[in-house]
Design goal:
Pfam families: TauE
Organism: Streptomyces griseomycini
Family: Belongs to the 4-toluene sulfonate uptake permease (TSUP) (TC 2.A.102) family.
Membrane topology: Multi-pass membrane protein
Helix content: over 70%
Protein name: Probable membrane transporter protein
């Protein structure tokens, strides 16, 4: 794998990766979907394909911190509905990675994110979010869960960009802030951990990438603490606006990069 080691990075490149790792921690405990900026930074500093393998362990570290912070707020019925569809999406994404080039990956995911952001804004203008995510129990809700699950599995496998997809699903299902964070924390810890064998098999993770990860993980912790401090100071409406804005920015970055 053509991955840079720690000693091949100059000061500015390492600083950019450290900031991106800090942002991962922040996004996991505050504004889910904001780590699409981290994805763009990693792909700019490292070889684009290899960057997904370097970023994955950093994301898992953030997931662990998020679960420790919000474990009491997870909505497990929603998670169980999502996992089968996500597994299918991961398999499709793995096959896609075998033949797709970076341009095809970026364009397809960028378009998906922007479309979902638009649909979510439209839906939320027609109806207020409910206290409990009852929408997922209806027939239409189950169909939506399957669709978002496949898209989430696909995007998280090919570019670690599943955060905005699941953010749009959880917002559209009516989750409040803490339920949103708790459910997404467990979701991504399980999904990202399950991706490890696929990433190793594709040659995206090796000893050199893990050495770089060991250093970058140190920056995830202060980002997570900053996010935990900030989330209690963000009201529900601003929280939703920030999540949608992060999704739009991530989608545009993938399209123009």
């Amino acid at each position: 794998m053509n991955t840079m080691t720690l000693w091949h990075l100059d000061g500015w490149e390492f600083a950019a990766l450290a900031f991106a790792a800090l942002l991962v921690g922040f996004s996991k405990t505050a504004v889910s979907g904001a780590n699409t900026v981290s994805l763009a930074v990693f792909a700019a500093v490292l070889p684009a394909r290899a960057s997904t393998g370097v970023l994955l362990p950093v994301l898992i570290a953030g997931d662990v911190l998020a679960v420790l912070t919000y474990r009491r707020h997870a909505h497990w019925p929603t998670l169980w509905r999502l996992f089968p569809a996500v597994a299918a999406g991961v398999v499709v994404g793995t096959v896609f990675l075998v033949w797709a080039d970076d341009g095809a990956v970026r364009t397809s995911i960028g378009v998906i994110l922007l479309l979902m952001a638009g649909v979510t804004v439209w839906r939320r203008r027609k109806a207020e979010a409910e206290e409990e995510p009852d929408a997922v129990t209806t027939r239409a809700g189950r169909a939506k869960a399957r669709a978002y699950g496949v898209l989430g599995g696909f995007t998280t496998m090919v570019a670690n960009a599943g955060g905005p997809v699941m953010s749009m699903y959880l917002l559209s299902a009516g989750f409040r802030k803490m339920g949103f964070l708790g459910t997404s924390a467990f979701f991504f810890l399980i999904v990202n951990t399950s991706k490890l064998p696929f990433s190793v098999g594709l040659g995206l993770i090796d000893a050199r990438s893990l050495l770089l990860d060991a250093v970058l993980v140190l920056f995830v912790v202060p980002g997570a603490l900053l996010g935990k401090w900030a989330v209690n100071r963000i009201n529900q409406r601003l929280f939703e606006q920030l999540v949608i804005a992060a999704t739009v920015v991530g989608g545009l970055q993938l399209l123009v990069r």
